Amino acid sequence: QVQLVESGGGSVQAGGSLKLSCVASRYILDNCGMAWYRQAPGKEREWLSSISMPRTSTTYAASVKGRFTMSPDNAKNAFYLQMNSLKPEDTAIYSCAACGGVYWGQGIQVTVSS
Length: 114
Hints:
Blueprint: E1 4-7, E2 10-13, E3 18-24, E4 34-39, E5 46-51, E6 58-60, E7 68-73, E8 78-83, E9 92-98, E10 103-104, E11 108-113
């Protein structure tokens, strides 16, 4: 059973930054795409960013493009989401996923205050 574990969430003021990490329990990321999602209260899950196989490009949702950066670290079997210029509307539970959504993290809270 593969597990994805997120870390790095928390509370920050608007304009601040956070970096989320997602670590896989087994070496799967060499052969799998990876993605970040979020879900705000009362809203549907929103896709944020993906790195697909082969790792030729990273794609972002319009809502986060230019502010968020996704990056892999194959040596650590991990990937990250650097979030800058955070806004109150970024408040949500953030989840990582791998292998086309076969594996999901447990989710981590990010709260941005104005």
